[in-house]
Write a structure and sequence with these properties.
heterodimer; A: alpha/beta; Elongation Factor Tu (Ef-tu), domain 3; Rossmann fold; six-stranded mixed beta sheet; B: alpha/beta; 14 strands; about 25% helix; globular; binds flavin-adenine dinucleotide; binds flavin mononucleotide; binds FE2/S2 (inorganic) cluster; flavin adenine dinucleotide binding (chain A)
């Protein structure tokens, strides 16, 4: 009896939307003291992705770090023509510590693209992006998409200190008006940001919020949004095991149909409606 | 090409590879064709709705993971209306895993899910996350026998009892399940475990304790497979830490008639189809015609140098 040939090599186009592929590292650079940018050479099959989606990375085994589970990482950029996929990450512990050791020419096993990405609704004409720390990585491809759709963009980038605010040039290249704030400057707290954002609503006609990287900023945007009738989306994080919806490890409570329900961040998210996050 | 077929009670599976409950769902259709599998096994469901345990629900430890998912369940009617139809078009037999709080509830539940489209019922009497400190039915032969006996009179479907590595009475529990009418055993569920962050002193799971799975579990569940395969005449399905074809072979040699793959699917979602292909290759390379030729062939002949007995 023949065994069914159920593994289709990734070189052949097949109907499955989630792929496990080995990608060669093109470049891997320090962006500043804390962050690194990893650029992979990726097959076309995984580049049918959208802003807000993520990949699940099998970080390498090194002398110092032996991660076991995969680690979720947002897509920082993808380029179908150049066959490139990149991530921007912060070294946090075992997994990202091991990841940081990857050299150009080495390979990384990735699974994806995963999850549900951002949706720029037709009525959202003047979006405001609010990114904290590495949340910026998640919002970068969204900024690029806003530029492509001709939506005038405003971005507030927040970090602990001014030298940790990243990608402002990238955002400007997408035509965004960029405002940077930092804890060290004393202008990144909710008390300072609220009047700033309410000012932007008046002067720039902001009609949608997109955010990632800080629960505090998300709560602030929920409050401002409720006050001004402004909706939006948020990308959230949760500890994961499978990353594709099988294990229920990554649930969080959300408001749906008038009640609280547990939804899987890896499947129903990681992008959710701003006002449904509890 | 070798004959990969195996039989579990009255069911013939086209190969011995199937998913472990809780590590598989319909989302895997986005990775490969599920019909290549020997069987499909659903996440455990309960009759009523349950929300599961607090987060974090998973953490990793050296070469393994802990989970305290609990059994979040949307209840039996939701399952019958929404989940069951998703599997209607697959050839692979569908095994549904159920859990309940009492033997009576198990029986009533078994009756409710004995519907067309369901090929067998996996009886989860071993979840360490659902009852206090892992006091599952499968800890004791009496409680195990009780559950299976009640279920046996409630359904004609094959009953697969999933055993626990947390009991000291592995053989007694296995025999009690067989005597009460179980058609197969699964060895085994996760082992109750704990992890603490040394820096903060905090338990790393929201539920404090959870089940250990992955490669670190294998020697224990492989031992249980061996013990049970010798002690009962119903088929034993091995489960625990399987990620390579060598793992599969070890379980078959220990006496398993089939195996389940759990955590390895999280590390590589295409593990199961790979194992099917590699098992076929290994059998060919060894000149074996069928999986049967491996089952229960463990070599325990005493070739070791006998150590001197301590007399004084
Ligand atoms: C959808 C998604 C997208 C993400 N995108 C990015 C990104 O673009 N750039 C970036 O720097 N980080 C991102 N993160 C966070 C990143 O996954 C964690 O920083 C990373 O898993 C930490 O692993 P570690 O082993 O280095 O750290 P450790 O602290 O040693 O991790 C220990 C365990 O906790 C888990 N864990 C720790 N922090 C998080 C977290 N914030 N979210 C989920 N699990 C966590 C790890 O997976 C691991 O199992 C994202 C998280 C999610 C869920
Ligand atoms: C996240 C997770 C969820 C699980 N859920 C269930 C479950 O609902 N029912 C069950 O019988 N076993 C459950 N298990 C146990 C597995 O089915 C399996 O017995 C165990 O993980 C050992 O196999 P492995 O080492 O291959 O993972 C779960 C395991 C994991 C890791
Ligand atoms: S990580 Fe497994 S369901 Fe989300």
């Amino acid at each position: 009896m023949p065994a069914s040939p159920c593994v289709v090599p990734d070189s052949i186009p097949h109907p499955y939307s989630i792929h496990e592929v080995e990608c060669r590292v093109k470049t891997h650079d320090r962006v500043n003291g804390e962050y690194r940018r990893l650029v992979l050479s990726a097959p076309r099959s995984v580049l049918d992705c959208e802003p807000g989606q993520f990949f699940h990375l099998l970080c390498p085994q090194t002398e110092g770090f032996q991660p076991y589970l995969r680690r979720p990482m947002s897509i920082y950029s993808y380029d179908r023509i150049r066959g490139e996929l990149s991530f921007l990450y912060k070294v946090a512990g075992t997994g990202t510590g091991a990841l940081a050791s990857l050299q150009p020419g080495e390979h990384l096993n990735i699974v994806g693209p995963l999850g549900r990405g951002f949706e720029i609704r037709r009525e959202w004409r003047r979006p405001l992006l609010v990114a904290r720390g590495v949340g910026l990585a998640t919002l970068a491809p969204l900024a690029s998409e806003c530029a492509r759709l001709g939506r005038p963009l405003t971005a507030i980038c927040s970090a602990r200190s001014p030298d940790l605010v990243m990608s402002t040039d990238l955002f400007r290249s997408f035509g965004a008006e960029v405002i940077t704030v930092a804890d060290a400057e004393g202008n990144s707290d909710v008390g300072s940001l609220t009047p700033l954002i309410e000012g932007l609503i008046r002067t720039r006609g902001i009609d949608a919020f997109f955010t990632c990287g800080s629960t505090r900023l998300m709560r602030m945007l929920q409050v401002i949004g409720s006050r001004h009738g402004i909706g939006g989306q948020v990308a959230v994080e949760q500890h994961m095991a499978c990353g594709i919806g099988m294990c229920q490890a990554c649930v969080r409570p959300f408001l749906r149909d008038g009640g609280a329900v547990n939804l899987r961040v890896c499947r129903e998210g990681p992008v959710f409606d701003l006002h449904e996050v509890l | 090409m070798a004959d990969l077929r195996t039989t579990i009670g009255g069911l013939t599976l086209k190969n011995p590879i199937m998913p472990a409950s809780g590590t598989f769902s319909e989302e895997l259709t986005e990775v490969f064709d599920l019909d290549c599998l020997g069987a499909l096994v659903t996440k455990t469901i309960t009759r009523g709705k349950r929300s599961g345990n607090p987060v974090p629900r998973v953490c990793e430890v050296n070469g393994a993971m802990l989970n305290s998912i609990g059994i979040p369940s949307k209840g039996v009617s939701w399952f019958l209306q929404n989940t069951l139809p998703l599997y209607r078009d697959y050839e692979a037999p569908l095994v549904i895993s159920i859990s309940a709080n009492t033997a009576d509830e198990f029986a009533r539940f078994a009756e409710e899910v004995s519907v067309p489209g369901v090929a067998a019922i996996e009886v989860n009497i071993s979840c360490p996350n659902i009852e206090d400190d892992g006091k599952a039915f499968a800890m004791r032969p009496g409680a195990t026998g009780d559950v299976i006996r009640r279920m046996r009179s409630a359904t004609h479907l094959p009953l697969w009892a999933k055993l626990s590595p947390n009991t000291g009475e592995v053989v007694e529990v296995a025999q009690a399940a067989e005597e009460a009418g179980a058609d197969a055993l699964i060895t085994a569920n996760t082992m109750l475990a704990m992890a603490i962050d040394s820096r903060t002193g905090r338990a790393r799971l929201g539920n404090i304790m959870g089940g250990l799975s992955g490669p670190a579990l294998k020697p224990i569940t492989l031992r249980m497979t061996y013990q049970c395969a010798r002690a009962v005449s119903i088929p034993v399905i091995g489960c625990g830490g399987i990620s390579t074809v060598d793992d599969v072979i070890e379980y078959l040699v220990a006496g398993a008639r089939a195996i389940q793959v759990g955590t390895a699917t999280f590390i590589s979602p295409s593990t199961m189809p790979r194992l099917i292909r590699e098992l076929d290759e290994v059998l060919d390379a060894r000149g074996l015609r069928s999986v049967d030729a491996l089952i229960g062939t463990v070599d325990v002949t005493d070739e070791a140098v006998v150590v001197a007995e301590c007399v004084r």
